[in-house]
Amino acid sequence: MQAERARLRRLQRLERVRAIAKQTAAAEAARAEGTLAQLEALAERTRAMTDEYAARTRFSDGLELRQIGHFVSGLQAITRTTTGDALQAKALADRKQQELAQAERSRAAVQDRAVAQEKAMSARAAPQVLGARRQVGTGLE
């Protein structure tokens, strides 16, 4: 009985540890999702700026045309870099979501084991109810 109580306490401690791990994984997943949203917004803004500057057609001289061309090519490089960073952030966010799901499954499994142990202990601790005795003989005796 003492060993069973010790096992139950260990399972409950393990469940608390897994719950903390789940909370940590949830916080990391939220940070990754926030970073992803910021990078996607930044990529979209730089893409819009690139399109806006590339669409300009009125230039006073060749120097201005050349400067805008260099500026647009620089913006395109920034857009490519930011888009690549957003893709990496998406992969990281997906991985963090998977880790969060794994942490929840792990915590739930330990919780199920603890509940089963508790039920088994309470079943063993409850006095066994013996069934009614069958009557032997006849009612005439």
Supply the key terms.
single chain, 83% helix, Helix Hairpins, mainly alpha, 141 residues
| Bulk shape | rod-shaped
- From the alpha-carbon coordinates, what is the Rg to the nearest angstrom? 33 Å
Which CATH architecture is right? Answer: Orthogonal Bundle
Count every beta strand, where a strand is a DSSP E run of 2 or more residues: 0
Task: List the helices and strands in order.
Answer: HH
Briefly summarize what is shown.
The chain has helices at 2-54, 62-125. By secondary structure, the protein is mostly helical.
Mind explaining what this structure looks like?
The chain has 141 residues and is mainly α. The protein has one domain: Helix Hairpins (Orthogonal Bundle). It contains 2 helices and no strands. α1 (2-54) packs antiparallel against α2 (62-125). It is rod-shaped and about 125 Å long. The relative contact order is 0.16. The mean pLDDT is 89.
